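To whoever picks this up:

The parser on our side crashed when reading a file containing two proteins. I've narrowed it down to the boundary between the first structure block and the second sequence. Both blocks are reproduced below exactly, byte for byte. First block:
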Amino acid sequence: MSTNAKHYTTPEEYLEFDRASEERYEYFAGEMFLMSGGRARHNTIIFNIGGSLRAQTKGGRCRGFANSQRVLVDDTGLYTYPDVVLVCGQPVLAHGDTLVNPTLLVEVLSPSTGNYDKVGKFDHYRKIASLAEYILIAQDKPHVMRHVCQGNATWLLSETTDINAVIELPSINCQLTLSDVYDNVGFSEPRELIN
């Protein structure tokens, strides 16, 4: 008989723990996952995106949150903290503090979570009925991937690596300019190996 059985955490236990914690945790299928803190480049990109979208949505019907708004994917039971969240219209909150109707989600890719954000997390996110756009931002080079809901559970992917590109975000009536997204990020060139 195994003594290493994992404890199943209920959503209620997770929420109580997460609210009291100074760190942020994701939750899925009875397990909690500590979210690692972003590094300088990651945080700079989030700050740049948040600032740009805040300026464009000021006084409008959309409001934004930067990496501190818990989101619930009701159909799958995933509780998560996207890097940037925008909701247009009235926010709908589960448990009083967990958003269930985001319009646009942004994730800044990290080496440790990039594949999960591209595939696993997107599998969850696209089950959110209100979600119109999902944006993935690389932090090691200019590269933005934009998924747009086409209806009937169909999503269209477009991407760019052009630092001068402007990405239209019609779901929130905004745009992102890559040069603004990557302002003060400072990409470093790979070092040559010395023999």
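<<boundary where parser fails>>
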Amino acid sequence: MVDLRTKDEMIAQQERERRIMSRGFKQPTAKDKQVGGEHYKNMGVEVWDVIDTWSQSERIGYYRGNALKYTMRMGRKDASVQEIKKAVHYLEKLIEVLEAQNG
């Protein structure tokens, strides 16, 4: 599999994961990752922070919808692998929301 991230993006991701692990967490959350650049991480408030204030059913719908969007547009905007990585990222977040719902 080809990794489409730049070297700086990969280093930034590794640093975020190192900080998370040093705080005693076993595995980074979906929010700790960024697929396709750092533009959301560099904002004062991230989109996911806002979405996570919504009701459970709204969050599930949002994350499902975005996973579907990236899957369906595969190869039409960004490289196919990049689009699928974005879809997987939303699915990882969806898993976290569902696991939290189920305890």
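After patching the parser it read the second block fine. The chain has one domain: 7-102. The chain has a mean pLDDT of 79.
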